[in-house]
């Protein structure tokens, strides 16, 4: 008997439920490399927020790795999820060639926690969006930054303000149904904090996208082959759930896999990261140009 093709997994659809960006790495990488803001005095500012352990810092490292072609670890990350490893407001620029940087920056903040006196204050996130928080501010879970703090920016310029708000949610967070080994529960209190941040962004007019991380541990079929991401029944359900509970349109939710155990970059992982980065750049540039 000849070799037969194994039957498809019942957890994987025969066709993608969303057209994947496969084969677009070269194109998207060139788009990012060629990007120049229409307003020359503005660097596109992307601020990442989400629950503790979501992978904000790891995503910044992943973007840095893709654009520099090697695994980097500039943004400190940790695998212990009980409290935020990031405690300061940090700005990250990515080197393009020696002496120059890409015209966009990432701002990383302390993680959100469901408990009232743990994690970043929602008010600090709101003030950071408006450009009132300077790089290096040490977050205080109990109270927001005061106007007499040395890291308070009284008169923020357009360049100081956030142009894209990025909500990072780990795929293995427990939701409407039971998950195996969830990092934490997405409780109603937690959702209320996330929604409060979204309402502030809406009132300011800042565009938003969401990133679903840890897709390899969320769905074993994606862990086996990352190109199953848009065939995975489980991830499809997760994105629908994330859209329904937090309000993000499904086409604004980008599943990605951050680098965590690898020593080399890979084209498929890079492709998903570049797709999310391109989405940030496009909506952020539109926002800045409309001001």
Please provide a written account of the structure.
The protein is α/β, with parallel strands linked by helices and 291 residues long. It has one domain: 3-Layer(aba) Sandwich (Rossmann fold), CATH 3.40.50. The protein is built from eight helices and six strands. The protein has a six-stranded mixed beta sheet with strand order 2-3-1-4-5-6, sandwiched between helices. β2 (90-95) and β3 form a beta hairpin. α1 (25-34) runs parallel beside α8 (267-290) and α2 (56-68) packs across α8 (267-290). The chain is globular and about 60 Å long. Mean pLDDT is 88; it is low at 176-183.
Summarize this, please?
The chain has helices spanning 25-34, 56-68, 122-129, 188-204, 215-218, 220-224, 233-246, 267-290, and strands at 44-49, 90-95, 101-108, 164-170, 208-213, 253-255. It has 291 residues and is an alpha/beta fold. Strands 2-3-1-4-5-6 form a 6-stranded mixed sheet, with helices on both faces.
Round the mean pLDDT to the nearest integer and report it: 88
Classify the fold: give the CATH topology. Rossmann fold
The largest β sheet comes out as: 6 strands, mixed
Q: What's the N-to-C terminus distance?
A: 68 Å
Can you tag this structure with a few keywords?
Rossmann fold; alpha/beta; 291 residues; 6-stranded mixed beta sheet; 8 helices
């Amino acid at each position: 008997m000849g070799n037969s093709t194994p039957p498809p997994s019942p957890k994987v659809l025969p066709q993608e439920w969303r057209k994947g960006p496969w084969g677009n790495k070269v194109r998207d990488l060139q788009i990012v490399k060629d990007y120049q803001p229409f307003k020359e005095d503005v660097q596109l500012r992307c601020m990442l927020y989400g629950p503790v352990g979501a992978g904000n810092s790891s995503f910044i490292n992943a973007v840095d790795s893709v654009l520099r072609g090697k695994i980097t670890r500039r943004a400190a990350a940790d695998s212990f999820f009980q409290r935020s490893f990031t405690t300061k407001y940090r700005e990250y620029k990515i080197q393009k060639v020696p002496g120059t940087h890409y015209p966009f920056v990432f701002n990383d903040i302390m993680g959100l926690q469901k408990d009232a006196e743990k994690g970043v204050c929602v008010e600090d996130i709101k003030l950071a969006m408006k450009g009132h928080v300077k790089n290096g501010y040490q977050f205080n879970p109990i109270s927001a930054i005061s106007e007499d703090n040395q890291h308070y920016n009284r008169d923020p310029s357009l360049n100081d303000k956030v142009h894209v708000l990025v909500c990072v949610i780990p795929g293995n967070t427990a939701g409407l149904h039971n998950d195996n080994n969830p990092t934490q529960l997405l409780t109603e209190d937690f959702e209320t904090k996330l929604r409060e941040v979204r309402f502030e962004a809406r009132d300011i007019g800042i565009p938003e996208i969401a990133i679903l991380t840890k897709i390899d541990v969320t769905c074993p079929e994606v862990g086996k082959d990352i190109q199953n991401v848009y065939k995975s029944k489980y991830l499809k359900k997760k994105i629908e759930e994330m859209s329904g509970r937090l309000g993000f349109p499904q086409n604004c939710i980008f599943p990605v896999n951050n680098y965590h155990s690898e020593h080399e970059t890979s084209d498929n992982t890079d492709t998903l990261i570049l797709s999310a980065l391109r989405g940030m750049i496009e909506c952020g540039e539109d926002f800045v140009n409309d001001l």
